[in-house]
Design brief:
By secondary structure, the protein is α/β, with parallel strands linked by helices. It folds into two domains: about 240 residues, Rossmann fold (3-Layer(aba) Sandwich), CATH 3.40.50.620; about 150 residues, Isoleucyl-tRNA Synthetase, Domain 1 (Orthogonal Bundle), CATH 1.10.730.10. It is about 45% helix and about 15% strand. A six-stranded parallel sheet has the order 3-2-1-11-12-7, sandwiched between helices. Strands 5-4-6-8 form a four-stranded antiparallel sheet. A three-stranded mixed sheet has the order 14-13-15. Strand 4 and strand 5 form a beta hairpin. The protein is elongated, with a radius of gyration of 27 Å. The chain binds one RNA strand through strand 1, strand 5, helix 6, strand 8 and helix 7.
RNA sequence: GUCAGAGUAGCUCAGCUGGUUAGAGCACAGGAUUCAUAACCCUGAGGUCGGGAGUUCAAGUCUCCCCUCUGACACCA
C-alpha cells in the first residue's frame, strides 16, 4: 500500500520558523512510522516561491526574485537535513516541471468549463494585498488593519467556478474522516454552508508568477500554483510530467498536514480543483494548532521568536522533537515554555528512559558477565512487563496513524515508568546479596532490558536518534523491514554481550535562556 | 456584530450519555533506597470545577443569564 503525506509548501518570504519546523517534524514522525509499518511512503515537502510578496521582499534586498528564492529555499532544505527529516520529495514551485504541470492542470479545469473571465471588483487594501468585504456602496471605507483608505479596483481576472462544486464539497466536508481534528470540522462546514463563491486564480499586475497560457499579462494566483506543487512533487520521479501518471505516483495523498490557518484552502478550494481536473481528492486534511511562547504569540514585533536553527544547535533534535510531540496535543495550540521543556526532556528522556537503561545494563553487566542475563521465565509473554509492553505497542500502533503523537509518546513513557517500578519492587541490588537468588534476579533484569528494547523500538519514529542509541546500548539495531516482529516480547537473547553503558541522553542545562 | 469552542489544583490538561471523598503529568513537600545520569520508587499537600440563578433525590457534567478568552465570518503561504 502506498502512503503519501505532505507538509505545506512553505512560503519563502522569510527564513524558516519554528512553526514550519513543527509541522515538518510531526510529518517526519508519521512518515517514519508508516515506513516501519511497511507502507510505501512518499513524504512530500517543499517551498512555494511565487507571488507579489516575495517579489517585493526580493526587491527590498536588491535581489532578483529567483535569487531570493534560491537562498531561502536552500535554508529550508538545509534545515530539514539538519533535523534529520526523512522527506522523499522536496519540491520548488519555480522548478520548470512545475510550470508544465500547472499548465496541464489548467487545461483540464478549463476543459471542464470551470474557468471564466470575470471582473474582480471591490475595495482593495494595497498594504494587505487583498479585497475587503466592505459593501460596494460604502462611501470611503478604510482598512481596519492598516488604517488607510481602501482603493476601488476593477480588474479582469480568471475565475475558478467553485460555486459549481457546492454540493460535492458539502458532502466531502461532512465526512467525519476528511477534516481533522474534529474540532475544526464544524468551522469549515459552516463556511461551506454559507455558499461557495467563485474565486480568482489569476492576477494581471504580478510579474513574479507563472504565466497563464492563453491570457497574456496574467499570472496564476499563488494559491492556485502552490497547491499544485503537491502533484509536481509526486511526479518528480524522473519520468515525464503527466497528470495521467498520478494514480501510480501516490495520488491521492493520504493526508495533508497543515497549520490551521490554511485549512480552508486545503479542505475546500483544493478538493474542488481536483474534482474539476478529474483527480481524486485527498483522503484527509489535518490542521494542527499554532505555537506560542511563554503564553505570547511569537513574532518579530515582540522579538520573541524561537529560531529553529538555534534550538537545534543548543538542544538537539531529540529534545525538541520529544517536547513538541509529547507535550502538545497535535491539533491544539501549544505553548513553548522553556522550564517545562527542560523538565520534560530531563525527566522523561534522561531520567526515566535513559537512566533506566543505564542502571539495568550496569547491573546485568556486573552480575551476569557483561551480557544479557538468562531469561528464565521472563521470556514468557505473560510476564507483567510483557503484558504492559504489548499494551503499549497496541496503543502506539493505534495512535500514530491518527497523528496522536502525544498519546503514543505518553504510553511509551509509561512503559519505562513501569519498568523502573519493577526494579524498585524486585530490588535486584539487594537480592543479589542473598544466596541462591541469581536466577530470579536474572529474570527480572532480563524483563527490564527487554522492556527497554521495546521502548527503544517504539521511539524509532518519534526520536530516531535516541532510539538508535538505546538499541545500540542493548547490542541491537532497528530492522526497518521487520519492526513489527521486533516488537514482540522476548527477542533479546541471553548471553549476548552488552556494551559498556554511557548515558544515551544527557540532561539538558542551559547557561542562558533560549 | 453573528456563529463556534473554551474557562477544572501554581502550570498544561483528562473528566463519555448527570450518581460514592473531582483525576493525571510537571512544579512543590516529606519518606524510602543506593543498581543508576544527585537518577529511580512511595506518600502528601494543593481545587467554593469563571460568576449567578434554575431543573433534579443528585450537576464540573443539563437549562437560562452574565463575565473573560480563542477561532471562523473568502481569496493572508
Amino acid at each position: 500500500m502506498s502512503y503519501t503525506l505532505t507538509t505545506p509548501l512553505y512560503y519563502v518570504n522569510d527564513r524558516p520558523h519554528l512553526g514550519s519546523t513543527y509541522t515538518t517534524l510531526a510529518c517526519d514522525a508519521l512518515a517514519r512510522f508508516e515506513r516501519l509499518r511497511l507502507q510505501k511512503v512518499t513524504f512530500v515537502t517543499g517551498v512555494d516561491e511565487h507571488g507579489q510578496k516575495i517579489q517585493r521582499t526580493a526587491e527590498r534586498q536588491q535581489l532578483s526574485p529567483q535569487d531570493h528564492c534560491d537562498r531561502v529555499s536552500s535554508r529550508y532544505r538545509d534545515l530539514w537535513n539538519q533535523w534529520g527529516i526523512s522527506d522523499d520529495r522536496f519540491v520548488r514551485t519555480t522548478n520548470p516541471r512545475h510550470l508544465e504541470l500547472v499548465v496541464q492542470f489548467y487545461e483540464r479545469v478549463k476543459a471542464s468549463g470551470d474557468i471564466v473571465v470575470g471582473k474582480q471588483t471591490g475595495w482593495y487594501c494595497v498594504d494587505c494585498e487583498e479585497y475587503k468585504d466592505d459593501p460596494a456602496e460604502a462611501e470611503s471605507p478604510s482598512c481596519s488593519i492598516h488604517r488607510k483608505p481602501l482603493e476601488w479596483r476593477d480588474e479582469e481576472n480568471l475565475f475558478f467556478r467553485l460555486s459549481r462544486y457546492q454540493s460535492a464539497i458539502e458532502e466531502l466536508v461532512a465526512r467525519d474522516d476528511f477534516i481533522a481534528p474534529a474540532s475544526r470540522r464544524q468551522e469549515v462546514r459552516n463556511f461551506v454552508a454559507q455558499g461557495l463563491r467563485d474565486f480568482s486564480i489569476s492576477r494581471v499586475n504580478v510579474s513574479w508568477g507563472l504565466p497563464v497560457p492563453d491570457h497574456p499579462g496574467h499570472t496564476f494566483y499563488v494559491w492556485f500554483d502552490a497547491l499544485l506543487g503537491y502533484l509536481t512533487a509526486l511526479l518528480d520521479d524522473g519520468e515525464a510530467v503527466s497528470l495521467d501518471r498520478l494514480a501510480s505516483c501516490g495520488w491521492p495523498a493520504s493526508v495533508h498536514v497543515i497549520g490551521k490557518d490554511i485549512l480552508r484552502f486545503h479542505a475546500v478550494f483544493w478538493p474542488a480543483m481536483c474534482m474539476s481536473a478529474g483527480l481524486p481528492v485527498p483522503q484527509k486534511v489535518f490542521g494542527h494548532g499554532f505555537l506560542t511562547r511563554e503564553g505570547q504569540k511569537m513574532g518579530k514585533s515582540l522579538g520573541n521568536v524561537l529560531d529553529p536553527e538555534l534550538l537545534l544547535e543548543r538542544c538537539g533534535t531529540d529534545a525538541v522533537r520529544w517536547y513538541l510531540l509529547r507535550d502538545i496535543q497535535f491539533g491544539d495550540d501549544g505553548d513553548f515554555q522553556q522550564q517545562r521543556f527542560l523538565d520534560l526532556v530531563n525527566n522523561d528522556l534522561a531520567n526515566t528512559i535513559g537512566n533506566l537503561l543505564n542502571r539495568t545494563s550496569s547491573m546485568a553487566r556486573k552480575w551476569f558477565d557483561d551480557g544479557v542475563p538468562p531469561a528464565g521465565k521472563a521470556s514468557s509473554a505473560d510476564h507483567p512487563l510483557a503484558i504492559k509492553a504489548a499494551e503499549t505497542v497496541r496503543t502506539v500502533i493505534e495512535a500514530m496513524p491518527q497523528l496522536a503523537f502525544k498519546t503514543a509518546a505518553e504510553s511509551i513513557l509509561q512503559l519505562a515508568i513501569a519498568a523502573n517500578g519493577h526494579l524498585s519492587d524486585t530490588a535486584p541490588w539487594s537480592r543479589m546479596k542473598e544466596p541462591g537468588q541469581e536466577a530470579s534476579v536474572a529474570e527480572d533484569l532480563f524483563a527490564v532490558l527487554e522492556t527497554t528494547r521495546i521502548v527503544g523500538l517504539l521511539l524509532a519514529p518519534l526520536l530516531p536518534e535516541l532510539s538508535g542509541r538505546i538499541l545500540a546500548q542493548l547490542g541491537q539495531s532497528l530492522d526497518p523491514n521487520n519492526w513489527s516482529n521486533q516488537l514482540n516480547w522476548g527477542r533479546l537473547s541471553s548471553g549476548s554481550p552488552l556494551p559498556k553503558p554511557t548515558p544515551v541522553m544527557q540532561r539538558l542545562e542551559l547557561d542562558e535562556p533560549l
